[in-house]
């Protein structure tokens, strides 16, 4: 059913919730997970000493640093037997995800619903909103809100 699943991440706890869903789908279907982080706006990377803010300018050093942190981030996922490819793009989140999905002919994009209920985010746009309107494949929007 799925061979290539794209997931955008910013390293946040909410994006980890979407990641858990994507990993489960990859385990069930044998799909390759394509993890992408766009650098068009400030990003957060999970580091060994907590969250590290990265520069919003996507120079080679920043791209290399983000890729290194993503490699550490996905190591436990690979130990589960999931094939993971990392992509760091000099584009904002939604554009990075959509471009990658088109390039690799993805079967599914998994994204969290962060900001979907906020009126201001709806008016200004959000990653899940943009992806749901422009995706070249199916989209799974995962509930990533904090449990009540």
Key traits:
148 residues, five-stranded parallel beta sheet, 5 helices, 43% helix
Structure commentary:
Helix 3 runs parallel beside helix 5. The protein is α/β, with parallel strands linked by helices and about 150 residues long. Strands 5-2-1-6-7 form a five-stranded parallel beta sheet, with helices on both faces. The chain has a two-stranded antiparallel ribbon with strand order 3-4. It is globular, with a radius of gyration of 14 Å. About 15% of the residues have low confidence. Strand 3 and strand 4 form a beta hairpin. The protein is built from five helices and seven strands; from the N terminus they run E-H-E-E-E-H-E-H-E-H-H-E.
Unreliable segments of 5+ consecutive residues: 48-56, 115-124
Mean pLDDT: 81
**Annotation, overall tally of beta strands:** 7
Biggest sheet architecture: 5 strands, parallel
What percentage of amino acids are in beta strands? 25-35%
**Helix/strand-derived class?**
alpha/beta
Record the strand order, biggest sheet: 5-2-1-6-7
Could you tell me how far the N terminus lies from the C terminus, measured between alpha carbons in angstroms? 34 Å
- What is the approximate shape? globular
Instruction: Write down the Rg.
Output: 14 Å
H and E string? EHEEEHEHEHHE
Count of helical stretches: 5
What is the share of helical residues?
Answer: 40-55%
């Amino acid at each position: 059913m799925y061979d290539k699943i794209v997931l955008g991440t910013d390293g946040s706890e909410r994006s980890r919730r979407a990641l858990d869903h994507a990993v489960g789908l990859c385990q069930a279907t044998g799909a390759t997970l394509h993890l992408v982080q766009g650098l068009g706006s400030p990003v957060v990377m999970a580091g060994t000493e907590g969250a590290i803010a990265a520069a919003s300018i996507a120079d080679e050093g920043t791209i290399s640093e983000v890729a290194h942190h993503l490699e550490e981030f996905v190591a436990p996922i690979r130990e589960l037997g999931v094939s993971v490819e990392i992509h760091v793009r000099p584009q904002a989140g939604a554009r990075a995800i959509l471009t990658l999905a088109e390039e690799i002919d993805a079967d599914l994009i998994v994204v969290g619903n962060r900001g979907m209920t906020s009126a201001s985010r709806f008016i200004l746009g959000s990653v899940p909103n943009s992806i749901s309107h422009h995706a070249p494949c199916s989209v799974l929007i995962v509930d990533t809100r904090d449990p009540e």
